[in-house]
Amino acid sequence: MESSSEISIQRLFGWLAGATASNIIVFFVASWLGASWDVGSPQLINLAIVVVLTVLPLTLGAWVTSLVSKKSLSARGVLVWAGFALALVSAPAGLLMSTDPTTGIALVVMHPIVATAWLAITLPRK
Protein backbone atom coordinates (compact mmCIF):
# COMPACT_ATOMS: atom_id res chain seq x y z
CA MET A 1 0.00 0.00 0.00
CA GLU A 2 1.32 3.43 -0.91
CA SER A 3 1.99 6.03 1.76
CA SER A 4 0.62 9.52 1.37
CA SER A 5 4.01 10.75 0.15
CA GLU A 6 4.34 8.21 -2.67
CA ILE A 7 3.04 8.31 -6.20
CA SER A 8 2.18 4.76 -7.18
CA ILE A 9 3.24 3.46 -10.54
CA GLN A 10 -0.19 1.85 -10.96
CA ARG A 11 -1.96 5.15 -10.41
CA LEU A 12 0.48 6.91 -12.77
CA PHE A 13 0.01 4.38 -15.58
CA GLY A 14 -3.74 4.19 -15.09
CA TRP A 15 -4.23 7.94 -15.35
CA LEU A 16 -1.68 8.22 -18.16
CA ALA A 17 -3.67 5.66 -20.12
CA GLY A 18 -6.96 7.39 -19.37
CA ALA A 19 -5.74 10.88 -20.24
CA THR A 20 -3.97 9.68 -23.38
CA ALA A 21 -7.01 7.73 -24.58
CA SER A 22 -9.26 10.71 -23.87
CA ASN A 23 -7.01 13.11 -25.76
CA ILE A 24 -6.77 10.67 -28.68
CA ILE A 25 -10.56 10.57 -28.83
CA VAL A 26 -10.68 14.39 -28.77
CA PHE A 27 -8.08 14.45 -31.57
CA PHE A 28 -10.04 12.09 -33.82
CA VAL A 29 -13.40 13.75 -33.16
CA ALA A 30 -11.95 17.20 -33.87
CA SER A 31 -10.23 15.86 -36.99
CA TRP A 32 -13.54 14.42 -38.16
CA LEU A 33 -15.14 17.82 -37.52
CA GLY A 34 -12.53 19.50 -39.72
CA ALA A 35 -9.77 20.64 -37.36
CA SER A 36 -6.73 21.83 -39.30
CA TRP A 37 -4.36 21.32 -36.35
CA ASP A 38 -2.49 24.42 -37.47
CA VAL A 39 -1.25 26.52 -34.55
CA GLY A 40 1.31 28.52 -36.48
CA SER A 41 4.21 26.17 -35.79
CA PRO A 42 6.33 24.62 -38.56
CA GLN A 43 4.55 21.29 -38.11
CA LEU A 44 0.84 20.65 -37.75
CA ILE A 45 -0.28 18.96 -34.56
CA ASN A 46 -0.63 15.23 -35.16
CA LEU A 47 -1.52 12.16 -33.13
CA ALA A 48 2.09 11.55 -32.03
CA ILE A 49 2.37 15.11 -30.74
CA VAL A 50 -0.89 14.73 -28.81
CA VAL A 51 0.35 11.51 -27.20
CA VAL A 52 3.80 12.88 -26.35
CA LEU A 53 2.41 16.15 -24.97
CA THR A 54 -0.01 14.18 -22.80
CA VAL A 55 2.41 11.56 -21.50
CA LEU A 56 5.66 13.50 -21.17
CA PRO A 57 4.55 16.35 -18.87
CA LEU A 58 2.57 14.00 -16.65
CA THR A 59 5.41 11.50 -16.38
CA LEU A 60 8.20 14.02 -15.84
CA GLY A 61 6.06 16.08 -13.49
CA ALA A 62 5.13 13.03 -11.43
CA TRP A 63 8.77 11.98 -11.24
CA VAL A 64 9.91 15.42 -10.07
CA THR A 65 7.00 15.65 -7.63
CA SER A 66 7.85 12.21 -6.26
CA LEU A 67 11.48 13.19 -5.71
CA VAL A 68 10.55 16.49 -4.06
CA SER A 69 7.92 14.89 -1.83
CA LYS A 70 10.55 12.64 -0.26
CA LYS A 71 12.08 15.80 1.19
CA SER A 72 9.06 18.03 1.74
CA LEU A 73 5.33 17.35 1.63
CA SER A 74 4.64 21.09 1.63
CA ALA A 75 6.77 21.50 -1.50
CA ARG A 76 4.80 18.66 -3.04
CA GLY A 77 1.61 20.59 -2.42
CA VAL A 78 3.04 23.58 -4.25
CA LEU A 79 4.03 21.42 -7.23
CA VAL A 80 0.66 19.67 -7.33
CA TRP A 81 -1.33 22.89 -7.47
CA ALA A 82 1.18 24.70 -9.70
CA GLY A 83 0.99 21.88 -12.25
CA PHE A 84 -2.79 21.91 -12.13
CA ALA A 85 -2.89 25.69 -12.56
CA LEU A 86 -0.38 25.58 -15.43
CA ALA A 87 -2.49 23.05 -17.32
CA LEU A 88 -5.61 25.16 -16.92
CA VAL A 89 -4.05 28.59 -17.47
CA SER A 90 -2.33 27.44 -20.66
CA ALA A 91 -5.57 26.03 -22.11
CA PRO A 92 -6.66 29.25 -23.87
CA ALA A 93 -3.33 29.41 -25.74
CA GLY A 94 -4.54 26.71 -28.12
CA LEU A 95 -7.62 28.73 -28.93
CA LEU A 96 -5.59 31.88 -29.46
CA MET A 97 -2.89 30.23 -31.58
CA SER A 98 -5.05 27.98 -33.73
CA THR A 99 -6.12 29.00 -37.20
CA ASP A 100 -9.62 27.56 -36.81
CA PRO A 101 -12.09 27.27 -33.94
CA THR A 102 -12.34 23.46 -34.09
CA THR A 103 -8.63 23.08 -33.45
CA GLY A 104 -8.73 25.69 -30.71
CA ILE A 105 -11.67 24.12 -28.91
CA ALA A 106 -10.11 20.67 -29.13
CA LEU A 107 -6.89 21.96 -27.58
CA VAL A 108 -8.84 23.76 -24.87
CA VAL A 109 -10.66 20.49 -24.06
CA MET A 110 -7.41 18.51 -23.86
CA HIS A 111 -5.89 20.71 -21.14
CA PRO A 112 -8.45 19.99 -18.39
CA ILE A 113 -8.14 16.28 -19.19
CA VAL A 114 -4.42 16.48 -18.43
CA ALA A 115 -5.07 18.73 -15.40
CA THR A 116 -7.50 16.17 -13.95
CA ALA A 117 -5.03 13.35 -14.52
CA TRP A 118 -2.31 15.45 -12.90
CA LEU A 119 -4.35 15.88 -9.73
CA ALA A 120 -5.32 12.22 -9.63
CA ILE A 121 -1.68 11.17 -10.02
CA THR A 122 -0.04 13.62 -7.65
CA LEU A 123 -2.48 14.47 -4.86
CA PRO A 124 -1.44 12.64 -1.68
CA ARG A 125 -3.77 9.84 -0.59
CA LYS A 126 -5.04 9.54 2.95
Automatic annotation (TrEMBL):
Keyword Membrane: yes
InterPro entries, per the entry: DUF6069
Transmembrane segments: 12-33, 45-66, 78-97, 103-123
Pfam families, alphabetized: DUF6069
Keyword annotations: Membrane, Transmembrane, Transmembrane helix
Protein name: Unannotated protein
Organism: freshwater metagenome
